[in-house]
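In this section we walk through a basic example: taking a raw amino acid sequence and producing a predicted 3D structure, encoded as discrete structure tokens. The instruction is simple. Fold the sequence below.
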Amino acid sequence: MEEFRLIEFHHARDFGKKINATFEFIKQNFKPLAKSILLIAGPAVLIGSILLGSFFSDLFSMFPKMGSGNAEALEFFKSTSYWSQLGLMYLFLFLSYVVTLATINSYIQVYYKKKSNQIEVSEVWEGVRSLIWSYLGSLLMIIFCAALFMFVIVLVGIVLGKISTALLVIAMMAAGVGFIYLLVGIALVFFIQAHEGTGFFESAVRSLRLISGKWWSTFGLSFILSMIGGVISYIFIIPYYIFIAVTAMHSVSGGGDVEMGSSLKTASYLFFTLYYMAQMLLQTLPQVGLVFQYFNLVELKESKGLMGDIENFGKPNDTDQRNETF
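The resulting token sequence is shown next.
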């Protein structure tokens, strides 16, 4: 049993130290955090991943028929079952993302307040219950604003396209840069909502202010940790693509059509379920990294940790749990 050492959030950290702190936090809290994600977000993630596997299984089974001009393939894409399956898949993938995000941030909040990694799922669940509706509303608002932004860009593009192609290209590039800037600029929204208890718009404005001047470090941190998580999650899907390639080559060499057999359908369900569940667990990486970025920016711009240390100077620490083990 290793000695528990509390990870202090209120520290200004450089890029490398934020990466190290992220992995240290996950290593220290892996079991209780993974347990919380699996038990709270697990049901939605499992249903979403099964629907994802089913969707791709049906889609791949149509590929050979699409090439031969089979009317069955066209009917498949026009069918009610296809669109209802697609809608349900996106619904549960959306819900699983929201619940996973709420679980991660709720866990971090419990750790921050309790100053311990001896955390029960019930404690995390209490936080998730208070966050879930605000997170749903915030994500829907982001999607709505993004859709509105794209709609305006399309209208402007149509007008500029009639005037000059060069103007259209410049406007599209500027819009793309602006969209990415804003997307990174509001990256701290969800944790600010959890930590400071503010609404979406107030949290978005605060996120933009904190990240102002530190956009590249925020983008780099999120990008690198997301890439690491993405690469690890692909371990669960690569065997599936190998299986498809081997099956296709075997069918072609045998002179037959490539058909989606029962074994391939089973593989689709299995590997996509594992892949998506791994992806949701690995969502912890960029999210924890953004939490350390939040506290880093707060320290650099507001020195809240330093002010708290000054206020508590000379006071006994009743919550010191540094001898606790995990």
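Looking at the output, two observations stand out. Residues 14 and 296 are 8 Å apart (CA to CA). The mean pLDDT is 83. In the next section we compare this with other chains.
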